[in-house]
Amino acid sequence: MTVAGSQVSGEVVARETPVEEEQPRAPLKRRNNRAWWLVLPVVVSVAFTAVIPLMTVVNFSVQDVFSPVDRVFVGLEWFQTISRDPEVRAALVRTLLFSAQVLLLEIPLGVALAVVMPRRGVWVSVALVLVALPLLIPWNVVGTIWQIFARGDIGLGGWTINNVLGINFNYTLDSTDAWITVLLMDVWHWTPLVALLAYAGLRSIPEPYFQAAQIDAASAWATFRHIQLPRLRGVLTIAILLRFMDSFMIYTEPFVVTGGGPGNATSFLSILLSKIAVGQFDVGPAAAFSLLYFLVVQVFCYVFFTVLTRSGR
């Protein structure tokens, strides 16, 4: 407190005027740089598993490698060669067509399976285990299972189609049969993933929504359309992105079943890339191919994500 004076009728009258006291400043918090040591293992792991291999591929994509010590810089020549290759373009069309068919089949089937799955009782655990079983099987084992299952001589599926239905089915000689086999194999293997994601989304819907629909005497279709489907939008966005990326990069299953044949009927981009990199050992074109492959996946995923998120607003 301070005392200030003012003069009234020749006298000095003292008055007290409050003055705000200065608040003590909080001590500056010191930055703990030791926290970077906790992040360092992740940084090192990502560098060795992603960044360094990616930079190595970029380095090979602009060189013509004759030997480990004999290389020639060629710039963007390999990128131009790959982008103009008709075989690569045909493989791109096949891969896009396969991914589109996978999405058109697996998303509706997965949602339908999630809707009919039980929500309470002991059958919930049984249904979840049975649905998740195909996801627990390794990819190469899935290919081997369907390679035997679809054979017309010893496979149950192929023998039934040939002898019971009277259809001449042979996926090793007919390109359409090979395509259908690979497509059905992927649907069998990965539809459970969509079903489990959709089932989790359905279980998160509060029960009062369904009670209100029951009071309004809403039909099952109306309940699904106006209550369940809108609340599955986020889950289905994730399912579509996951299934597109995986189907667009599919390799193991069709390679085990058909090896990309007959001819080039099931030769997708991944199989063609493996053929160039491992079979022909063309390091430069394979590196450029892999970078373009990576870029196409990123672009399509960005487009899918942008369209799906904006349509939900």
Automatic annotation (TrEMBL):
Q: What membrane topology is given?
A: Multi-pass membrane protein
Q: List each copy of the ABC transmembrane type-1 domain by range.
A: 92-304
Q: Which InterPro entries does the annotation name? A: MetI-like, MetI-like_sf, Sugar_ABC_transporter
Sorted UniProt keywords: Membrane, Transmembrane, Transmembrane helix, Transport
Pfam family, any one? BPD_transp_1
UniProt xrefs under SUPFAM superfamilies: MetI-like
- GO annotation, cellular component aspect: plasma membrane
| Basic and acidic residues biased stretches | 13-24
Q: Does the keyword Transmembrane helix apply?
A: yes
Q: Which residues does UniProt assign to the signal peptide?
A: none
Q: Which CDD domains match?
A: TM_PBP2 (cd06261)
Write out the annotated subcellular location.
Cell membrane; Membrane
Q: Does the keyword Metal-binding apply?
A: no
Q: Which residues cross the membrane?
A: 35-58, 96-116, 123-149, 178-202, 234-252, 287-308
Stated name of the protein = Glycerol transport system permease protein
Q: Which organism is it from?
A: Nonomuraea rubra
